[in-house]
Amino acid sequence: MKLATFLPPGSDAPRAGEVRGDDVIAFEGTVLDRLASGDRTAARGEAFPLADVTLLAPVPRPRAIFGIGLNYRAHAEEQGGSLPERPIVFMKLPASSAAPGEPVRCPAAVRRLDYEGELAVVIGPDATVAGFAVADDVTARDLQKREPQWTRAKGADGFCPWGPWITTADEVADPEMLQLRTWVNDELRQDASTSDLIFGIREIVDFISETCTLEPGDLILTGTPSGVGTWQDPPSFLGSGDVVRIEIEALGAIEHPIA
After folding, report:
1. Which residues form the Rv2993c-like N-terminal domain (predicted)?
2. Cα dist. 180→42, 81, 173, 193 in Å?
């Protein structure tokens, strides 16, 4: 099942629905309600052509957005460092959450804006994995380099476009065997498999759960593979008018411009 939050044509009132083929079928309540209850009953409401709706972040304001740093072997190796012994956890803010196609606005304090295509884990009841989505862990590299805490570098408003919907876990045979690709202006920058993850999904969830209670709708961004802008030769950062597209096998794609 694919769970989406969307604006119907001509409406500014968000609806929740199930994506089926080229349509989204509305259901009562919210995507978060479905995540919390585990309800997977097929939607039976009004149908809208997917091409005619505006997709929003599936959970518009997640309670918590966790990120995992240096969690792909090739990404760690391109930086010339050793592999981490345990997950490196950081946080984004609820206000970082953005619709999959929403323009990312670069704060005036940032000079080196970068993309990070990532597999997002969506939490269900009792720290279960309810589903998966595509995310961009947008990062201000200049702030990240000079500030040991990454809150400003990664937690700025709109720095987590994600979606296009949540694919429930029962529909993903092996989330640690998915192809992930990122393009900037149609140039392929990242092309990797989640099989290159250093710490697997269950290991990450359990590690965070040792100290933090995970709740339905929480997100965990599981890390980015090699090929980010800062490690291009020469480095290549995002600017106004650029378009980032991130696609993960079986989960769909998000595409957003830089304002």
Report:
1. 1-58
2. 29, 23, 16, 6
